[in-house]
Amino acid sequence: MSAADLLVAAVCLNRDEELLTMDEDFLSVLEVEPAFRVIVDRPDESFG
Predict the structure, then answer these.
(1) What's the distance, CA 4 to chain centroid?
(2) What is the pLDDT of residues 6-25, one digit of tens each?
(3) What domain count does the chain have?
(4) 30 three-state secondary structure
(5) Residue 14: enclosing H or E segment and its boundaries?
(6) Most buried pick, 1, 14, 22, 26, via CB within 10 A?
(7) CA gap 33, 44 in Å, rounded
(8) Distance from C-alpha of 48 to C-alpha of 32, rounded to nearest angstrom
(9) Is the pLDDT of residue 33 over 60?
């Protein structure tokens, strides 16, 4: 997880916002901050 990803997560937490992303790295934030709300939208493999 990059410093920029951590900054995005921190802003979402500070503003009590939910993050919609395709980056599964953000799921690791949940291990240290259960209040973090994230939805990981995986690309549909059928449109490859």
Answers:
(1) 12
(2) 999 999 999 999 999 999 99
(3) 1
(4) helix
(5) helix 3-14
(6) 26
(7) 28
(8) 34
(9) yes
